[in-house]
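Hi,

I'm pasting everything inline rather than attaching a file, because the server keeps stripping attachments. The sequence lines come first, and each chain or strand is labelled.
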Amino acid sequence: MKKIKTYSEINERIKNGNAVVMTAGEFKELANHSKPGELANKVDVVTTATFGPMCSSGAFINFGHSGPPMRLEKISLNDVPAYGGIAAADAYVGATETANPHDKYGGAHVIEDLVSGKDIRLKASSKGTDCYPRKEIETKINIESVNEAFLFNPRNAYQNYAAAVNSQRRKLYTYMGVLLPSCGNVNYSTSGEYSPLLNDPDMRSIGVGTRIFLGGTQGFVAWHGTQFITSRPRNESGIPVLPAATLSLIGNLKEMSAEFIKAAYYEKYGTSLFVGVGIPIPVLDEDMAARLAIRNEQIETQVFDYGLSERPVVKKVNYKELQSGEIELGGRKVRTAPLSSISAAKNIMKLLKEEVSTGKFLINEPVEHFPKNTTNKALEGIEHG
Amino acid sequence: MKSRYVFVFPTEAINKPLTYHLVKDFDLKVNIFNAYINSGEEGNLALEIEGSPGQIQAGLEFAKSLGVECSTLDKRVKLEHDRCINCGACVAVCYSDALKMDANTMELNFDKDKCTVCELCTTACPLQLFKINFVE
Ligand code: SF4
Ligand code: SF4
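And the predicted assembly:
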């Protein structure tokens, strides 16, 4: 494949303010009547985005030391437990953590409240040591008062995700929203043709160190995400038809905005965090341009029946059908709902385009590419006789 | 006298010709403005009934005798639209199609006139943006 341009050439153009930057939406329109070669010559960067509920998210916080010093061991933030098994004033608060099993306020809400600048009640206890004598503390903290606060999400930005339906006679409350009985609705959860990992399905430009838009500021890809599966079957457009790659993301919570970090509560499931993620993709050559031209009708996923424990596949669908608002299932029309906000994804793509166009956002070449041929391991319980 | 009601049908009552009887036996004018009935399941019917208070009362008693839950439509659903993130989780449960995503903008549309106040959206919205208001 002939390389048309390099990262440094693209960054040079960005710095000079003459890079051609488009949102994924605009690029795909242009691709309707241009060949990949022309597109690669014409366009430098395409912005992609997603804004969906991402349960596997959380934040590291360093509260600073009290006098006398204390090793914060059991920690809660607005009563939500935070992990304190790291020394000494560090903690990790996970999005799905809650004080009680059915609370509607959880770690995600603590994170959103921090981002919004609200005060948070910190309570901590410790056994007390010779070097850290203090045993109790109760105080207020906020985003300004803490030393560091950064989002560090183990698994975000799924490359495709299964859609959900429920064939049973009772309503199901899931992380895929409410599933009505007798296949009353189909819920799906990706931004389709705007989704970052569906626009660079082989992750040629996305790897460790990629600079991204995260929650309203610049963040980075820290690692490949957990449950990173590259061995999923792909369709003829080269798109995995099941949940495949994921990203582990990191970014400064102090710079984020509550517009792009939103706490959610799903009835009888629990809390989660909507995270706004945008990734600019460099159009390095024809192959990248061809991948970026992908449309919703070429991106397929499977509808799983969450009503049955083995979750059988009910149907294969594409995102054009899903986004139309209804699909046909068993001879009747069934309404569909996105769960991830496609309008917010469009907004992020626009903002990111603006940032890149005005020279504020450079494209990082990955420091390290992700592993290839990864599979998924299951967890087996031990039977007690 | 004209009043609005929501009828919730249990599975057994679905196949009974309810509105026919309301019209024929109780001399009521019935205007169904929304229905969601799926055989073998619970059904929702939003209707306006016109007649004398006595007739309406008798008609409602008859419906209740069939196991239909009748409640006056004196509640309204209020959406805090300015905080909506357009995730569509509410659209998934709205049988009456009052809540729909605009297929172009992928933003939420709320057509209040279609709402049967089934209250399903109040638990479906992950941001808890729906509230039930009682109207006088
Ligand atoms: S209460 Fe909510 S879900 Fe039910 S009909 Fe009205 S808008 Fe739709
Ligand atoms: S579920 Fe709530 S946030 Fe989502 S589209 Fe409906 S009203 Fe908006």
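Chain B has three helices and eight strands.

If the labels don't parse on your end, tell me and I'll reformat.
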